[in-house]
Sequence to fold (302 residues):
Amino acid sequence: MELALKEAYRGIARGDGGPFGAVVVRGSEVIASGHNEVLKTNDPTRHAEMCAITRASKKMSSPHFSGCVIYSTTEPCVMCFAAINWAQIQQVFFGTTVRDVKRLGFNELVISNRRLNTLGGGSVALVAGFMRHECQELLDAWGRMPSHETY
Amino acid sequence: MELALKEAYRGIARGDGGPFGAVVVRGSEVIASGHNEVLKTNDPTRHAEMCAITRASKKMSSPHFSGCVIYSTTEPCVMCFAAINWAQIQQVFFGTTVRDVKRLGFNELVISNRRLNTLGGGSVALVAGFMRHECQELLDAWGRMPSHETY
Fold:
């Protein structure tokens, strides 16, 4: 999660997009990391988790990322959670929640990862509130910046 | 939708991935098209809609695709529908449904677009069953192929 936070801070310093970072890990190996690049690319799919998954795919021999987990500074949005489920990533560790981010003005579908698992028949294990304090500090730091667009 | 079907047939002929195509349109202009490239890339995020959105983003001046609609041969999966919502695409036209595809063995979260709109507070207009017969023929054609992996 420290690496995910570092990615996110780097992304907001560059103006690449929102305050989000993610890292795909297998055992003790960091497979790939990413931060939100939506502003940089004008591509609404370029969330931190999606960037990390796309980068990780270059090291994989199948679209199923067996044995991998992902660390996300905020609970993955509906798009990212479904991508994690497609990738068969086993577990998500996240700090702040979809609701915390909705309050910042992001225009997202407000459905928790837990609910998506239940409704959709997913089986991704969830660890909520992981380093939540540090992840909240990241959102606060972004909120204090002069420009913060919520795409 | 004819172009989306053509994209999908091209994709399965090449072995790029599953039998899915999508086209982003604004007014009478085709902005971008895509087909499933999950097998080609080992990237589980490379669904037809995501490929089309990523390509479309290169022509956009913002991550919000004002005035655009999308044609998808099958109802967008949870990931793709959330991406469409992020892009503020106004309307989705689709042929076959998430349930039709689940029956083929794809490992997806089974939640309809209608339900995602209702639960998550989305506002994407839906036109289901658009050229459904032709879209079902595409799934049938893929089902008859000797190899059809369901990533």
Q: What stands out?
A: The first strand of chain B starts at residue 21 and ends at 26.
